[in-house]
Every structure is written in C-alpha cells, then in structure tokens.
Write a structure and sequence with these properties.
The complex is a heterodimer of chains A (118) and B (114). Chain A is mostly beta strands. In chain A, 0% of the residues lie in helices and 49% in strands. In chain A, a hairpin with a 6-residue loop joins strand 4 and strand 5. By secondary structure, chain B is an all-beta fold. In chain B, 0% of the residues lie in helices and 54% in strands. Chain B is built from no helices and twelve strands. The mean pLDDT of chain B is 90. At the A-B interface, strand 4 and strand 9 of A face strand 5, strand 6 and strand 10 of B.
Chain lengths: 118, 114
C-alpha cells in the first residue's frame, strides 16, 4: 500500500485563492520531505526541502512567501500556495526518504497534486 | 493501469564495471521518460530525459539511456561506474500531452564497491 499519502490529488480554483497540499508519511517518521513541481514537458524541479521542527530550505527562485511550507510533525508536511495565480498551475509532488546518517532510508513519493488555477 | 517497473531493487558492482538498470513502463499514448538519481540524504536530480527524436539519450555523468518503443523500455547504462555513482536511481514516465502526472518506478539502489 501507499507509504506516502498526498492530498488532494486535484484542485481547481479561482485566481487569488490559497491552496493547501498535504503530504503524510504513513509508516515511518520523516524528518525531511521534499517538494517538487513539474510543468508540462519538463522534469521535476525541487522547490524546497521541508525539515521537521525548523524552517524549510527554499531553492533559488522559489518565493517562500508564496509557497508556505510547514512541517510540524514527523508525519506531515504541508505546502500552501498563497494567492494562487494561473502561472502557479502545475503538478506538485512530495517525497520523503533518503535520510539517516547513511542516507539509506527508502524514497517514497506521493501521488502528486494537479493544481489548476482559473 | 499506468505503471513503471524497475527490475532490480538493489545492485552491487565493483568500480569500472558496466551498468545497466532496467526500466519498463505501461502507459497508453506518447510518453516522456526520465531517469533521476538521488544521492544519500539529497533530493532527486535529473540524469537524463527523453521527449522525442533520437532514442539514445545522453545525460550527465556519463549516463545514457535508450528508448525502445516496441519493448516499452528505457534502460539506463553507464560503461564504467565509479564509487561516486552509489545512489538510488528512479525511472519515471509522464504522458507527453494532457494529464502530466508523473509515475515513478520503485527505484534501484546502486552500491559501488571501491
């Protein structure tokens, strides 16, 4: 069964709306989660690294005030797209794993969230 | 159902050995194909991608992959591996149009012995 649960799978909303995406690790504790986005015909782009109990680390060019990440527990990280606009329409995916001192914990992906802003 | 299958869960090789990691997909329609690598404790990085054109794709760090449409395969190769190639490798597929949900294989953990 799924190890990482990402919700919702699809969101369609009006411009200016804020949208929250949840990523839950179901069978293990994840101190780190990664958030990616993918535009059509492109590869995944890392947006930020979410660290439990501390601030997320954002990649260059990603607006931290627009893409709010909260990792309040070892099993839940959320990405909130604030005041979403049509250019934010994309596919967002979270993943966990690859952690530990040897980086030998397995990698698990959520099923992704397709965000469509009208 | 759409799926990506990576045949080997764990591969152990010595330095300078040749590498081939298998990837097969089940996906209706035209596809875009990717190989990603994740080094310990790090995020995914793109190794190479196939969208169209020459089915033999060259990526970073000496990796290449060949898209064989008739076999629904996109195997990753490297003629001579290095210890620094120790990582986990993921094959992924999306549709080339319409719904671009990405589907990952379960990954292959590659361990290179020095």
């Amino acid at each position: 069964g799924a190890v990482v649960s990402q919700h919702p799978s699809r969101v369609i909303c009006k411009s200016g709306t804020s949208v929250k995406i949840e990523c839950r690790s179901l069978d293990f504790q994840a101190t780190t989660m990664f958030w990616y986005r993918q535009f059509p015909k492109q590869s995944l782009m890392l947006m930020a690294t979410s660290n439990e109990g501390s601030k997320a680390t954002y990649e260059q060019g990603v607006e931290k005030d627009k893409f709010l990440i909260n990792h309040a527990s070892l099993t839940l990280s959320t990405l909130t797209v604030t005041s979403a606009h049509p250019e934010d329409s994309s596919f967002y995916i979270c993943s966990t794993g690859g952690q530990g001192s040897l980086g030998n914990q397995p990698q698990h992906f959520g099923d992704g969230t397709r965000l469509s802003i009208l | 159902a759409q799926s990506v299958s990576q045949h080997n869960h764990h591969v152990i090789l010595s330095e300078a050995a040749s590498l081939e990691l298998g990837c097969n997909y089940s996906y209706g329609g035209t596809v875009n194909l990717f190989w990603y690598v994740q080094y310990p404790g790090q995020h995914l990085q793109l190794l190479l991608k196939y969208f169209s054109g020459d089915p033999l794709v060259k990526g970073i760090k000496g990796f290449e992959a060949e898209f064989i449409k008739s076999k629904f395969s996109f195997n990753l190769r490297k003629p001579s591996v290095q210890w620094s190639d120790t990582a986990e490798y993921f094959c992924a597929v999306t549709s080339s149009g319409g719904d671009d949900k990405i589907i990952f294989g379960k990954g292959t953990r590659l361990h290179i012995l020095p």
